[in-house]
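Lecture notes, unit on protein representations.

Consider one protein chain, 404 amino acids long.
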Amino acid sequence: MQTISLQTARRTALAAQGFADARPAAPPTRRHLAKVLSRVQLLQLDSVNVAVRAHYMPVFSRLGAYDQALVDDAAWTDTARKPRMLVESWAHEASLLPVEDWPLLRSGAKRDGWWRNYTRVIETVPGLIDDVLAIVKEHGPIGAGAIEKALEAEVAGRGPGAWWERSVVKKACEYLFGLGRLSTGTRRSFERLYDLTERVVPPEILSRQVSAEEGARGLIDRSARALGVATETDLRDYYRLGPDVARQAVAELVEAGTLEPVQVRDWRGIAYRHTAARTPRAVTGRALLCPFDPLIWERARTERLFGFRYRIEIYVPEPKRLYGYYVFPFLLDGSLAARVDLKSDRAAGVLRVQGSFAEEGADVPRVADELAGELAHMAQWLGLDGVAVGPRGDLAGPLSRAVR
């Protein structure tokens, strides 16, 4: 078994995630988006909008400024000239992923998630599932609130006890979404508008039957391509597969020659390198990473790979936060060199740096200069007029001077 250094593993991982690719000189196109997706495999969705929606940021981190309509059109419009590229499903978490991967997610390789907890609640309202599906079939794409109103009108004449708690309808929608019977036809101000899956996923893809074993191999293969070199736990986490299913798929991919076992110095246990992975001599450039970027979303891997301990502090009471509410690590020449707590102040027209912190051993003047440049680029992309640096953090002074 080959032993590789931590630095080699890091460069391999960064290349797999697209950070060894140069940003395009011209405005990014659908072709550039497809290349990013071939690296990261999926984009995680999240409702927090304090700086920018989570699914837009990883594309910016790799391509630089681009028109967010590229992602919107790929995910939520479908025309003859531009067919839908992405579909929503539970993958890592709620995610956008290539339409072609739908059969892998529905193969049985991935366990049903938290939505199964709604079964008991929904069963207290006989006929609710059929009623929701009928409303969506007639009116979709449609939001949960509109479904509630349509159902309320239908049951108004059924007499006492015919109505139920409104939240049950939303739970029914999420239950059907989790099972793959409903999908997201489009979104309106980030509200999910449900539609029948057969009207979202093309019939030739929807009809493709994949066994659970084939589905697991396909998902682990995509995890390995996205990660470059990874432990079995890392590979499993990318699509949130069960341990037994993942171990079996890893073993089969090793036997097939798709994955190569390696030992990474300072890592416990065996890691696996995808045979298509490449390791550049160096990784240069800079990028801000949102908390849900696939390079860093697995916190233990981030610490193991970069020596960078990262936790999202949204749910931590403000006085107990170490770094801030919505913190972006800053990637510079292959290392995580700093972190900044960012907020898009749309009323004032500025990107606010509410806290800025350099990592130990960082070249502070250079980090401040490069970070100032990337923050200005991000502000421009978001349609903001500039960057405002607050006083919190040991990087605040140098960064404030560099921004000016």
